[in-house]
Amino acid sequence: MSWNARRFWLSKWKGLSPIEAVGCLSERPFGRIFGFECLSFPSSTPSTTETEAMQAKNELPRREFIGSMTAALVGGSAVNSAALGSWLGQDESTQAAAGRSTEPVRMGIIGVGGRGTYLLRLLLEQGVEVPAVCDIRPARLEIAVNLIAKAREGRKPATYGKDPFDYRHLLARDDLEAVLVATPMQWHAVMSVDALRAGKHVLSEVSAAVTLQECWDLVHAVEETGRIYMLAENCCYWHPVMMIRNMVRKGIFGELTFAECGYVHDCRALAFEADGSLTWRGELSRDHRGNLYPTHSLGPVAQWLGINRGDRLVSLVAAETKHAGMRHYIEKRFPPDHPARKLQFKAADSTTVLIRTAKGVLIDLRYDVKSARPHPTTVYYSLQGTTASYDSRIDGIWIEGRSPSYQWQPLDTYREEFEDPLWKEHRAAAEKTGHAGGDFFVLHQFLEAIRRGGPSPIDVYDAVTWSAVTPLSEISLNEGGRVVEIPDFTRGKWESRS
């Protein structure tokens, strides 16, 4: 889509109703329930020429923007604990005694669509200050402003969004120490890099990047600025996922040999706006092939295997099915003369990626967002070791010497012994939030990293390693299923990191 076309759609977006603005379109029930759809900003970043044209119109000159970024990095920003007392059940005196700052973290929000608005609510409930928000849709900005004003005795935040690059004005503010990036995936990397170089800590929605260059840009930005970066991968914090990770660390699985995981979520409706134009998901599927959304499935498995902490991903090969599911959906939803009937998508119905690690573990990674299926089958995980096996699809675990011979047991059988300490401490609070409590822990761990000055539990090396599967799987498919090497983004540090 050309930049002029994107500007046309931006002008149309401004007319959305408040209900549409918070992601409650009838075609998007999952966005309505979980708050992860209908994010703003154009789905694709513009070309260099288009970027320069937009910057020329921006009232904050590029030189001034870079200057403000440098000043922020040199001067630094106060690292506060944000309402960590609320998260951790401690009052201010307890925090102070433990060396915690009692001042709230000050975060800016870039993207207050369905997902951004949902996370904004959680942050406000925990006392985080939000002095500024950015979104190109006025109706969504209005909703965010009203939420913040209600939580802060009428005090309204500054707003940005006159064009897709107005977020840079937000980043130039000196009263923010962190930002949440909750825009379409194609914008995550560029906005995160700009934020890091502006001296801000970053919590980015998934995936971290869509190209290899963006992956390296993120790594360099974190290394050169020293700021905290965390990928908001909530699946890593699901109760069963964390319990298996704890069991692996305690040696229950013995030597790990194989893992299987997949993201199988019927997202065909999420690919289209109400008028039939493409959302960011639709544009991504139209323009690319391969595993376009790997972190929900790969992230938990990578943590089980100790990827970037004693092992690393070394190569992958991808294969895909034919194209049928989306065509079937379009033919049922749109009349014969609708423009959507002419759309061609590069992404197939289902893509499988086989990944090999340095220690010889094999990962079978599936991605399928175009096949008809009920929502509860969104993700699955399995893990095989020399002394134990786990399969989330049957909620089954078998442990040598503990389980009955050749009989699966419910994972909950071992909760008392192997439940992760974080879940034991924060279960009541976590169960009140979305994505099976994962959203609570993502915010909790990011704020805790700021309080401690790092490190991030899902840092930039994890984020880009998982996200790089997208461009690398596309390379493999484009070259006839060639085995593709996976870059070592840690540049050797994976062997000694813990």
Briefly characterize the structure:
With 498 residues, this protein is an alpha/beta fold. 40% of the residues lie in helices and 15% in strands.
End-to-end C-alpha gap: 44 Å
> In the CATH hierarchy, what is the superfamily of the largest domain?
Dihydrodipicolinate Reductase, domain 2
Q: Which fold does the CATH topology of the largest domain refer to?
A: Dihydrodipicolinate Reductase, domain 2
What CATH architecture label of the largest domain applies? Answer: 2-Layer Sandwich
Q: Residue ranges: pLDDT <50 for 5 or more in a row? A: 1-40, 46-91
User: What form results from the Cα inertia axes?
Assistant: globular
Number of domain units: 2
Percent of residues in beta strands? 15-25%
Structural category is: alpha/beta
Describe, in plain words, how this protein is organized in 3D.
This protein has 498 residues and is of the alpha/beta class. The protein has two domains: 3-205, 3-Layer(aba) Sandwich (Rossmann fold); 236-437 and 457-495, Dihydrodipicolinate Reductase, domain 2 (2-Layer Sandwich). It has 21 helices and 15 strands. Helix 11 (185-197) packs parallel to helix 12 and helix 15 (295-305) packs across helix 20. Mean pLDDT is 85; it is low at 1-40 and 46-91.
